[in-house]
Automatic annotation (TrEMBL):
Gene: wecC
Domain UDP-glucose/GDP-mannose dehydrogenase C-terminal stretches: 324-420
SMART domains, A to Z: UDPG_MGDP_dh_C
EC number from the UniProt entry: 1.1.1.336
Gene3D superfamilies referenced in this protein's UniProt entry, alphabetically: Cytochrome c1, transmembrane anchor, C-terminal (1.20.5.100), NAD(P)-binding Rossmann-like Domain (3.40.50.720)
NCBIfam families: NDP-sugDHase, PRK11064.1
Organism: Neoaquamicrobium sediminum
Family to which this protein belongs: Belongs to the UDP-glucose/GDP-mannose dehydrogenase family.
Enzyme class: oxidoreductase
Keywords of the record: NAD, Oxidoreductase
GO molecular function annotation: UDP-N-acetyl-D-mannosamine dehydrogenase activity
This protein's name: UDP-N-acetyl-D-mannosamine dehydrogenase
Length: 420
């Protein structure tokens, strides 16, 4: 059996490598020449624990190669991005299916009767059926489930990815999978494919439910984080420590609140709920509100820092404070800065305090763009020299076992790890 994985990013590349490690012949397809070249040289174009060694081995052993042009295969796994388009008149960001459309039109010419196509990209409800429609447009000689049901000669299913960056290779194998075929036979074929490496259970449903399942998982987390973030605003107003509060409330057997922070980052949890809101704007009121609560958190953090700057300046007339941001990543113990609320906050502070901004981010070697005259320093340097310390990411490296020097330094702790 030959398997083609289309889109060799954070999901596609590990998936391709894992299939190849089960001695399947895998063809990876990507539009970026540098991605294809890097992989064919046995390397990876992003950092994920153990992935580099795995890709190196399967390429060397001849089970995996990458190409810019699709080739025939028995099964196709599509893992391309589904970003959203910025809010239009409706004020709701709309999903952008252009990558899925481009891939559909690109692989249609190599589809053969009996092929299976699985869409893994996180998708708005209806995207799998839409993909089938694009195939049908390009290949009128073949028959697809929406016109021929079980009698179709192509099988199509949705099987959303649900791995956590940093633990991708383990979660790919261990997590349960939700598989939604356009017909029951489509599901059966897709289950057979994933069974080759998935040790978790494969649960079968229809494709629209599978699409909605993925969006629901990330919306559940977003709503729960929004609840925690709203509590942090309420507690600030009432003079209560929100982390102590959540710890207490979570001792109830049926309460499990997540943690407040500077906002929600990454490209899944801050995006996917919009796919639900744009599909059902009148019904998805809570999901929309949660998005807005989380998106507004960085502004609130900036207002706390402003208040500290003002208080410091009143105490030290004629002087300007040095501000240190602890952390830029979108979550702890990784180097990933994409859609990071911490980075947004640091950029806003760079405009305000200019060369009086220090940034501590032990996971990167060089500051990203947009931080002006800020300097990258060690935690020790920042603690020794900053007047205001802003904790934005709960990296292990920042857990000093209490508040750093409570007497002298002013502190804004968005993660609650610096309490005495
Ligand atoms: N965050 C909080 N408080 C919390 C938990 C998270 O503020 O209590 C913030 C993080 O700091 C980060 C953001 O939320 O900015 C998202 O981080 P995350 O660790 O919750 O999730 P991701 O984006 O790395 O991965 C999620 C996962 N989905 C769920 O846990 C439901 C993962 O399983 C999905 O595969 C992934 O989205 C995806 O690709 O959709």
């Amino acid at each position: 059996e030959r398997i083609s994985v289309v889109g060799l990013g954070y999901i596609g590349l590990p998936t391709a490598a894992v299939f190849a490690s089960r001695n399947k012949k895998v063809i990876g397809v990507d539009v970026a020449p540098h991605v294809v070249d890097t992989i064919n040289a046995g390397g990876t174009h992003f950092v994920e624990p153990d992935l580099d060694a795995l890709v190196h081995r399967v390429v060397k052993d001849g089970f995996f190669h990458a190409t810019l042009t699709p080739e025939e295969a028995d099964a196709f796994v599509v893992a391309v991005p589904t970003p959203f388009r910025d809010a239009t008149v409706s004020q709701v960001p709309e999903p952008d299916l252009s990558y899925i459309e481009a891939v559909s039109r690109m692989i249609a010419p190599v589809l053969r009767p009996g092929n299976l196509v699985v869409l893994e990209s996180t998708s708005p409800v209806g995207a799998t059926e839409q993909m089938a429609a694009w195939f049908a447009e390009e290949r009128p000689d073949l028959t697809f489930p929406q016109t021929h049901g079980e009698a179709s000669d192509i099988r199509i299913a949705h099987c959303p990815e649900r791995v956590l960056p940093g633990q991708v290779l383990r979660e790919l194998v261990e997590n349960d999978r939700v598989i939604g075929g356009m017909t029951p036979l489509c599901s059966t074929r897709a289950v057979e494919l994933y069974r080759q490496f998935v040790k978790g259970e494969c649960f079968v449903t229809d494709c629209r439910t599978a699409e909605m399942t993925k969006l629901t998982e990330n919306s559940f987390r977003d709503v729960n984080i929004a609840f925690a973030n709203e509590l942090s605003l309420i507690c600030d107003r009432l003079g209560i420590d929100v982390w102590e509060l959540i710890r207490m409330a979570n001792r109830h057997p049926r309460v499990n609140i997540l943690q407040p922070g500077p906002g929600v980052g990454g490209h899944c949890i801050a995006v996917d709920p919009w796919f639900i809101v744009s599909a059902a704007p009148e019904q998805a009121r809570l999901i929309r509100q949660a998005r807005e609560v989380n998106d507004s958190k960085p502004r609130w953090v900036l207002s706390r820092v402003d208040a500290e700057i003002e208080a410091w300046t009143t105490e030290n007339p004629g002087l300007k404070p040095t501000v240190a941001c602890f952390g830029l990543a979108f979550k702890p113990n990784i180097d990933d800065l994409r859609e990071s609320p911490a980075l947004g906050i640091a950029r806003a502070l760079a405009e305000k305090v200019r060369d009086r901004l220090m940034v501590v981010e032990p996971h990167i070697a060089k500051l990203p763009d947009g931080l002006g005259e800020a300097t990258l320093v060690s935690p020790q340097d920042a603690l020794a020299n900053a007047d205001i310390c802003v904790l934005l990411v709960d990296h292990d490296a920042f857990k000093f076992g209490g508040t750093p020097d409570r007497g002298r330094v002013r502190i804004v702790d968005t993660r609650g790890i610096w309490k005495a």
